[in-house]
Amino acid sequence: MNLFSVSSIIIFFASLGLGLIIYADNRKSKLNHSWFLVSVVIALWGLGLWGVTNSLSEKNALLWQYFLDAAGVFIPVLYFNFTLNFLNLEKEKGLARLSAFFAGILLFALSFTRLFKQGMTFKFGFHWVDPGPLYYLFPLIFVFYLGYSATLLFKRYREETGVAKQQIKYVLLSLVFGFSAGATNFFPQLFNSYPFGNYFVILYIFFMSYPVLKHNLFNTKVITTEFFAGAISLVFLFNIFVSKTPSQWALSSFIFILIAIFSFLLVRSVIKEVESKERLEKLTLELRAVNEKLQRLDQAKSEFISIASHQLRTPLTAIRGFSSMILEGDYGPTSPEIKDKVDKIMQSSTRLMALVDDLLTISRIEQGRMKYEWQDRVNLTTMVKSVAEELEQQAKKKELALNLEITPRDLLVRADENKLRQVVMNLIDNAIKYTEKGSITVSLIEESQSAILKVADTGIGISLDGLSRLFQKFSRGERSPRVWTDGTGLGLYVARIILEEHQGKITAYSDGEGRGSEFVVALPLEA
What we know:
Elements: H1 3-25, H2 30-54, H3 58-72, H4 75-86, H5 94-110, E1 117-123, E2 126-131, H6 137-159, H7 162-182, H8 187-190, H9 203-214, H10 222-241, H11 246-327, H12 336-366, E3 375-379, H13 380-397, E4 401-406, E5 412-415, H14 417-433, E6 439-447, E7 450-457, H15 464-468, H16 480-483, H17 491-501, E8 505-509, E9 517-524
Parallel strand pairs: 4-6
Antiparallel strand pairs: 1-2, 3-5, 6-7, 7-9, 8-9
Helix pairs in contact: 1-2, 1-10, 2-3, 2-4, 4-5, 4-6, 6-7, 7-9, 10-11, 11-12, 13-14, 14-17
């Protein structure tokens, strides 16, 4: 057995193996059926070529040549059929497919006549067909239908994206490299040239195996790789035993070792890749299901908060309204004891109303329904002074000093004035609530085209762990509930969201619990 014969028998085993595996994987698939037929005729053609090139007599070579041609004439026809199925064009190109099968049947019938081949001739160390006058229809039809297939594949390749594009790319490469190499077997008859390309026909197997394994072309898995690795290794092992000279033996052994190492590494890498892909797909499905469930729960929670908050506003408004009227004497004189109790009702309902407002704000944020009424040239300097004056009495009640260090220059920003005021109010109000003694310092300066607002206090401070989650929903410092029991942990979260919409940011600093804290807000100034 010579090297040319070895390449032919490799084509037989590899092509037949790939076809059988793909067919067995899904016997109902039209695409799998069409590729199986292509694999079978290529395998039979390879077997026929092996028989021709190993025949010692012209008579024996001619018998193998009949076998080779009978299979070979259907290669371009069946590949064209596979292409139409692969691209889902079988209905659109139905007439073209019928024409291809008619051409294949015509060549098949001619292949047994002297019009197709007149006998065999010996050249390049092998027997080759002596062509008849109509033999040249074979290469013409071969080139036409494979060229037609390549054109259809290339056209679709330019249109597709993602995995489909990769699948088409490797099918196209298998056609160009594999069948172009196979076409050189016409050279001895047409140009009296050695058919060097036969050694590279096996490339079509490798280019087809890659999309099968990597891009799930026919849904086959690791068994395909194991089969080909084993089959190719056995062929090259067999080639060692038929070597006739020491140099042939050494070369065959060296090639076998390389093929065996490559096959081992290929199988191992494909096993790992398939296992990883399957694990990833399983995790993706699980995560998708969990994520969908969480989204439904989150949506239900947001809707509940929104509905409950709206329902609470009506009775709270009534409670505050009637409490205010009682305190103002609209229903006549009341005793100091009743006024004290009603005042507590008023304070509690006010705090509850603030909580309801925070919950409604959170609901709007999460549902993407938060609306902003943007205004140009909002005077931040005036706003900070106004909020500080409003909260000054609250600080005095706790005997706290409220110090203002505000630039005299008007700092203008683009903002929703009410929402930005809510942020400033929240920061200064928190500083007062969580400071038991000492002072609060509110400063406002201009720095690098930004307005910098700082609210510093000498209060309870914040731990390092507390700083890391301070701006999350329902997050409060460990000591906060001891000083102010009515806090919800929503104010700073809402402040962060509002400031982000204003293209600003908020940062908190503290040296630890009991050492005070400082909140810094940066907002871009208008030009």
